[in-house]
Write a structure and sequence with these properties.
CATH topology: Rossmann fold
Helix content: 40-55%
Number of strands: 9
Radius of gyration: 18 Å
Distance between the termini: 48 Å
CATH architecture: 3-Layer(aba) Sandwich
CATH class: Alpha Beta
Shape: globular
Strand content: 15-25%
Bound molecules: nicotinamide-adenine-dinucleotide
Order of helices and strands: EHEHEHEHEHEEHEHEHH
Structural class: alpha/beta
Largest sheet: 7 strands, parallel
Number of helices: 9
CATH superfamily: NAD(P)-binding Rossmann-like Domain
Length: about 260
């Protein structure tokens, strides 16, 4: 049976692709035990083959299902003797288009995965985090949580929500000595952005294309830090400030770049 054998451990959702997969690889290189969870079973198998079955527990998990989450956390706890150094709530989906032109059911699915999935994860994994000294609850938010972005309205709303959840729980979980933080990535080369979006990205600035490994390295840094919000790239922090100081100016600027 796969066993952490005293190693530090990270539970990663959305581990079969993109930032989740790069994070699994990086923590594996650092000697950590990795729990990899995703709806993409083929992707998980490939990851487990790469990392070695003795270093990686890989299980199918739809984060929007609380019962599946309970099964996944229980399997992870069996492998780690009830510990979890990092919960990385990373799985997410996006839909692009005008709010009024996309089926409401599809948009509710975005909420189920990106927000309810994160709540399921934190709620279910909390006993393990509490049992682990210096544990970190880390969530993938988005640069779209700085200012609600047109054409990804519901996606941006869920990312604002997880950012707010992280802020609130970072205080509540002081009771348990569990830290909470999140990352707000810009445009990252993963399975999520369309080829078109990547091809037409600016060569410089906060929305240049960034490699997924940079987000993985951020998760690594966050483990040894008390920083609440991580911006990748760092200049996105300026956008966050602009959104806070003069949202109307930023709104009007974003409104000039609406192409589906
Ligand atoms: P990705 O599509 O490469 O990876 C996302 C993974 O999540 C996939 O393996 C997918 O199968 C999995 N997934 C989807 N629904 C799931 C579910 N219900 N349960 C479990 N797993 C599920 O994309 P990525 O860019 O690596 O996405 C990771 C996170 O980063 C997401 O939360 C996304 O919203 C966020 N993000 C991405 C970007 C970007 O530019 N790529 C920017 C900001 C934030």
């Amino acid at each position: 049976m796969t066993h952490a054998a005293g190693r530090q451990s990270i539970f990663i959702t959305g581990a079969a692709s993109g930032m989740g997969r790069e994070t699994a690889r990086l923590f594996n290189q650092k000697g950590w035990f990795v729990g990899a969870f995703d709806v993409d079973q083929a992707g998980l198998q490939a990851l487990q083959a790469e990392l070695g079955a003795e270093n990686c527990l890989a299980l199918a998990l739809d984060v929007s299902s609380k019962s599946q989450y309970e099964t996944a956390v229980s399997a992870f706890a069996d492998a780690t003797e009830g510990r979890m150094d990092i919960l990385f709530n990373n799985a997410g989906i996006a839909m692009r288009g005008f709010f009024d032109e996309m089926p409401l059911e599809d948009q509710l699915r975005v909420v189920q995965v990106n927000l309810v999935g994160v709540m399921n994860g934190i709620y279910t994994a909390l006993p393990l985090l509490k049992a682990t000294p210096n544990a970190l609850c880390f969530t993938t938010s988005s640069s779209s949580a700085t200012m609600g972005m047109p054409l990804i309205a519901v996606y941006a709303a869920t990312k604002h929500a997880v950012k707010g959840l992280t802020e609130a729980l970072s205080n509540e979980f002081r009771r348990f000595d569990v830290r909470c933080a999140d990352v707000l990535p810009g445009l990252i080369r993963t399975g999520m952005p369309s080829d078109d979006l990547l091809a037409n990205a600016p060569a410089g600035g906060p929305f240049r294309v960034i490699e997924a490994i940079e987000v993985a390295e951020t998760v690594w840094q966050a483990y040894s830090s008390d920083i609440l919000h991580w911006f990748v790239p760092a200049e996105l922090a300026d956008l966050d400030k602009a959104a806070g100081n003069t949202p109307e100016i930023l709104r009007d600027k974003l409104g000039k770049h609406m192409t589906v």
